[in-house]
Give the backbone structure.
Amino acid sequence: MGGKIGHTLLAQDCVLCQAASGEKLLCEACARELPFVASACPRCAAPSADAAECGACIADPPHYDASRAAFVYAFPVDALIQSLKYGGQLALAGLFAHEWYQRIGATGRFDLIVPLPLHPARLAERGFNQAAEIARVLARLSGVAMDARLARRVRDTAAQTMLPWRERATNVRGAFACDADLGGLNIAVVDDVMTTGATLDEFARTLKKSGAARVENWVMARTARDV
């Protein structure tokens, strides 16, 4: 599968190889090569050979209750996410949402879908929240209401990717706030990529502090633990 992501998202052109793809963003050949998650820890979605809860989650349980990822964060998914996030190719949000829903689906009862918030400064710089764009489509597919204003990011923290693994939890502590009463609600949190899970863990902590009964992460891609 060659080629680069195009600058435009023409329905008849695959966004990866520019071959004819009909009404889809990916041609059949490129779609077959997407790195789907085969087996993962049900708590943090890290790759797992037996789909059992991993040792890290058993030893130090995160505040979220479950995580489900459709893809491994590897080529070409990484390139597609970068194109959505930094290239503004918003049609890719729909691609990810449809692939996630088709592969995983929203099993169980959920009261709200909540995209991981961006800090206002980051939102103004980027012009959109990629998690909210994905969540909007997932809400339509699942029939679960989305609330992008339920919580907010109150600290503009350093980018997690720039920090050592063990410093990431400290970096995001106190980054979110939620004034709503979430008593007894089951919340699905949407984000594009899950790396260490520190940001999602802190967000889940915030939601549970406001009364959420269950928090499940719906992420498009999951990295390996050593990223």
About this structure: The beta strands are 66-72, 112-115, 152-153, 176-177, 186-194, 214-222.
